[in-house]
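seq:
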Amino acid sequence: MAIFFAFILAAILGYIYGHRIRPNRRLQKIMRELKEKCSAVLEDEKKGVYKTIVTENQNSSELVVEVKELAVTETGQVKVQYLNAFYKNPSFRTRKGTELLQEVHGLLGEYLPKQEIEWYEVNGRHAAIKEFVNELDTIQNPHTARK
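struct:
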């Protein structure tokens, strides 16, 4: 008789685990991954290109810098992170990679004028993703509630 009750109890616990607990964990994991991917896509929204002319020893070249917006001040200055840079005239300076980014940081500083940065186009996809992420955060679903 005890074996029969143990079998019934194991079946009930197996059902609860298989149909309630495990799918909830999978759903929570998928929603977490989805939010991470959406936030990575939204990070592209704050990128742009800044161009300027650099002159040294009567030689000049256009410097093109890809930047990422970190913050905006009240005066219209943008605190930026330098992602990539290059000179249009490659013989002007020969530094590359992180050395060039350090040189650019020294030349331009941490803040650039917002109106001089050509921001990448943001289409309706970003707005839809923002709305989707906000909706994910506000859903009151018992299957995604953390316990």
